[in-house]
Design goal:
Pfam families: DUF6525. With 90 residues, the protein is mostly helical. Helix content is 70%, strand content 0%. It has five helices and no strands. It is elongated, with a radius of gyration of 15 Å.
Length: 90
């Protein structure tokens, strides 16, 4: 079972397909660090990193196809369901 902090983080993500792989990732981090807050923080950092890569790749493809900035980037929108102020309260 996933720790509450990780379940909350996955629920905040706009793309629900991620939840399928999170259990496998959690098992990996749990083997590395044990069931500790350090493991939870490491997994959350990794999910944040993957989200940044995904967003950058999508923005690059959008710019190539349409010659414009991705509207979400231009608006400064977050990829999380909750806004930046809510996300900082994790």
């Amino acid at each position: 079972m996933l720790p509450p902090a990780i379940r909350q983080r996955v629920a905040e993500h706009a793309y629900d397909a991620w939840s399928v792989n999170v259990m496998v990732l959690w098992q990996h981090y749990r083997r590395l660090y044990g069931r500790t807050p350090r493991a939870e923080r490491a997994l959350i950092r990794y999910l944040d990193y993957c989200e940044r890569l995904e967003r950058a790749a999508f923005a690059a493809r959008y710019a190539q196809a349409y010659g414009a900035t991705l509207p979400h980037d231009a608006a400064g929108a977050t990829i999380l369901r909750r806004g930046p102020a809510d996300a900082s309260m994790r």
